[in-house]
């Protein structure tokens, strides 16, 4: 219960106030914010991660990888759906008609510019591809798609470059679609032991994830 300070405790209260003012005045002179200091500390940690759902390369076989392939494996697509976008069809992604895909999904990308998933997706392209725009545009997506296809055509060297650019030492992979036989390259990936299956107990058949499942 909160009570008013008694006559006896008032001097102590004033001392506390004076101390608080001195401390606050001291804070005003500090140039770095708490966020800056946290960022500086976090930057010293080699891996800041929970888990990823990175597919192994054969799961991308059969079609080029471009912007919409990555979008279709990103949680950002759920923001698009919330904004009213039709479900992204795998056949259209594989078809790779960028004009038609932009016509359908471009407006919804615009609607989701302020979501955190959009911000993360954009930041990923800034770090890995040097994408300098503040938003995804028709032209930007096309030029990113050309670079993405080029990079994924040389997967070995692209992984090495991407991990160096992003500062990843290892990626913790939760391969929930193949939790018992994930074939991961130990140079890049560390398998997360997913205990959900042990708790929820579905059979592998009942999981029913398609081969190219999305997260
Ligand atoms: Zn997850």
Name every ligand kind in the structure. zinc ion
Structural class: mainly alpha
- The fraction of residues in strands falls at under 5%
Rg measurement, Å: 24 Å
Largest sheet, strands/sense/barrel: 2 strands, parallel
Q: Cα distance, first to last residue?
A: 48 Å
Q: Helicity level, as a percent range?
A: 40-55%
Uncertain runs are 1-9, 15-23, 210-215
- Please, what is the average pLDDT? 80
Q: Quick one: how many beta strands?
A: 2
Major sheet strand order:
1-2
Your description of this structure?
The chain is mostly helical. The protein has a domain at about 60-165. It has helices at about 10-30, 35-40, 65-70, 75-80, 90-95, 100-110, 115-130, 140-155, 155-165, 195-200, 205; strands at about 170-175, 190. The longest helix is centred in the first third of the chain and has 20 residues, at about 10-30. About 15% of the residues are buried. The model is unreliable at about 1-10, about 15-25 and about 210-215 (pLDDT under 50). It binds zinc ion. Zinc ion (ZN) binds next to loops.
Structural topology:
Blueprint: H1 10-29, H2 34-42, H3 67-71, H4 76-82, H5 90-95, H6 98-111, H7 116-129, H8 138-153, H9 155-166, E1 171-173, E2 189-191, H10 196-200, H11 204-207
Parallel strand pairs: 1-2
Zinc ion binds next to loops.
């Amino acid at each position: 219960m909160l009570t008013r300070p008694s006559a006896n405790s008032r001097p102590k209260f004033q001392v506390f106030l004076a101390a608080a003012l001195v401390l606050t005045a001291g804070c005003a002179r500090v140039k770095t914010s708490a966020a800056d200091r946290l960022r500086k500390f976090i930057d010293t940690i080699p891996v800041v991660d929970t888990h990823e759902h990175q597919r192994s390369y054969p799961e991308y076989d059969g079609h080029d990888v471009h912007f919409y392939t990555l979008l279709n494996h990103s949680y950002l697509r759920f923001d698009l759906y919330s904004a009213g976008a039709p479900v992204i069809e795998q056949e259209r992604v594989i078809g790779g008609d960028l004009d038609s895909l932009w016509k359908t999904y471009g407006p919804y990308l615009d609607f989701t510019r302020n979501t955190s998933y959009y911000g993360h997706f954009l930041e990923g392209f800034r770090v890995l591809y040097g994408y300098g725009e503040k938003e995804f545009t028709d032209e930007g997506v096309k030029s990113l798609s050309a670079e993405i296809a080029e990079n994924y055509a040389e997967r070995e060297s692209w992984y090495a470059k991407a991990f160096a650019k992003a500062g990843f030492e290892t990626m913790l992979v939760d391969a929930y679609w193949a939790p018992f036989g994930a074939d991961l390259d130990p140079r890049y990936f560390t398998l997360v032991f997913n205990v959900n299956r042990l708790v929820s107990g579905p059979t592998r058949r009942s999981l029913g994830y398609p081969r190219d499942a999305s997260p």
